[in-house]
Specification:
By secondary structure, the protein is an alpha/beta fold. It is built from 6 helices and 11 strands. It has a single domain, classed as Metal-dependent hydrolases (TIM Barrel, Alpha-Beta Barrel), CATH 3.20.20.140.
Length: 246
């Protein structure tokens, strides 16, 4: 399954994207689902549930939490039972180690979001090397340019973690579906998504890239890529595509 693990809606400050329209665009782009990760909150949950049923596409909810060392995508097996982040952590920016520990205590998975993005306050950068408990690194954020994604992939490889991908859609529907995460097994709800993230059974995928010839076996490999049709599979780290060198 191809799922956009990082998209925003009107529930993020400064974003005007409508949940239903995001889901519709994702379906048109050939994706199987979208996880709405609005900034510092899970308020979109009822709206996402209703819109997903009506649009016939998987719609899930997580949160992008702002910490003292970068942003982190947090996914919970039962988001409807999770208190609002300020109740869990106090006033933002929250200590990243506290965030990771609490999310994992609740059975969730934490992904380092665009760790080398210098456009945000207090980017995590190499600080992620000091963190325990991360499930993955966001190796492909479709809205980021320059070396940010390449550095994230290298970090994931160094930490032996898988990479995930997401559009980071925020300002326009045209951003939806440009990057996603490939899940080996069906995802039906947040619990099954978290289980596969924690098991590392994921690849990041660029949608709409120009195909290139693939040498050898054409398998995803650690720190490498696979271009197949219009999708580019970016591997990285533990269970994220280690194969024999090409």
């Amino acid at each position: 399954m191809l799922i956009d693990l990082h998209a925003h809606s009107r529930h993020s400050a400064g974003c005007d994207l409508d949940v239903r329209e995001v889901l519709r665009r994702a379906r048109e782009q050939g994706l199987d689902g979208v996880v709405f990760t609005d900034l510092n909150g899970l308020e979109a949950l009822p709206e996402v549930r209703a819109a997903a049923r009506e649009e016939g596409i998987l719609g899930l909810v997580g949160a992008e939490l702002v910490t003292d060392h970068g942003h982190y995508l947090c996914y919970f097996p039962e988001p409807e039972k999770v208190p609002a982040p300020p109740q869990l952590f106090g006033t933002p920016p929250w200590p990243v180690r506290t965030v990771i520990a609490k999310v994992r205590e609740l059975g969730g998975a934490v992904v380092a979001a665009h760790p080398y993005d210098k456009t945000i306050d207090r980017p995590s950068g190499d600080f992620i090397f000091t963190l325990d408990g991360l499930a993955a690194v966001e190796g492909l954020h479709a809205r980021k340019r320059g070396p940010a994604n390449d550095l994230a992939i290298e970090a994931a490889d160094h930490m032996n973690l898988p990479c995930v991908g997401g559009s980071g859609a925020f300002g326009s529907l045209d951003e939806v579906g440009k990057a996603a995460t490939l899940f080996r097994r069906p995802v039906t709800d947040e619990a099954s998504l978290v289980a596969q993230l924690r098991a590392g059974e994921v690849y990041c995928v660029a949608v709409g890239v120009t195909p290139l010839p693939v040498e050898g076996r054409g398998e995803p490999r650690r720190g490498g890529d696979r271009r197949e049709g219009r999708r580019e599979h970016r591997g990285g780290g533990r269970h994220g595509g280690r194969r024999e060198p090409r």
